[in-house]
């Protein structure tokens, strides 16, 4: 964590980027003749802060979803044990055999790629406002009004639950997004119920306490074009997610890195698996037992990476606090104060929390 703090502190002394200089990164990357990273995109990291590879200590936890939902009692008990260990030690895990057809996953990646291939004029229609909870929003970087370094990514975000929203372009986007959002929500619900059980709670404890039926589900697609100097740019810098759990898929290009035991680990999940990570609201709810873990997206010089993250959170008006049942059982005092999920999301996207651990703002 100290290394990240140093990065963040050095980041803050840079003057904010002039928003008029911000550009669509796809257009910039495809402009021709780009041999170096423009200064406003230059993101430097500690040269010793490289990802670990092929180390048995950093083997990625894998959860077989089919055994969680239809396995024998012994098999399910084993999966719950593995899930508990993954949540406690990693905050990240990979889910296989989840039942969502490959054609749904590949179809979603395909229509997202088609969205990013729309003309700039077409995409302007979906830019949204400064409200972080706009039903539909697309753009580049993080927030060009407060960015100190621009990110090597374009994005489109839609709220898909409790009300489903979608751009009306390109053809087929809405239908693919609706099916994908529905299927990922089903998987997320089962996982959240299982996580409840790993905490010794009733399986529906979290969904009831977090008003899951009205919970916020986002669909956030990211486009990272090939970069001429990948070591001098960043797709998304170190951060944690604001919700309860996030499910992610990607095309064949890796780029996700997770911090584990003070080291960065490459997370190269196959395209037909979900990468799942815990968010800040899960850390609050469990009173620090299960942690929301730092992760980042790096870029490459070879090909475009597309990832689709689906954060799932409480309803926006739910005030999230440590679970009283856990506090009583563990004889603990709460280490977080309560805040509505809407206020937390807005805080994370603000200049006040820019490049800082947002969860520290509510730590007692």
Q: What fold name goes in the CATH topology slot?
A: Jelly Rolls
Distance between the termini: 19 Å
The CATH homologous superfamily is called: B-lactam Antibiotic, Isopenicillin N Synthase, Chain
In spatial order, strands of the major sheet run 2-3-11-8-13-6-5-4
Q: What is the count of β-strands? A: 15
Question: How many structural units, i.e. domains?
Answer: 1
What is the CATH architecture annotation?
Answer: Sandwich
Order of helices and strands: HHEEHHEHHEEHHEEEEEEHEEEHEH
Major sheet characteristics: 8 strands, mixed
Domain Fe2OG dioxygenase: 214-314
Pfam families: 2OG-FeII_Oxy, DIOX_N
Protein name: Fe2OG dioxygenase domain-containing protein
GO molecular function, one term: metal ion binding
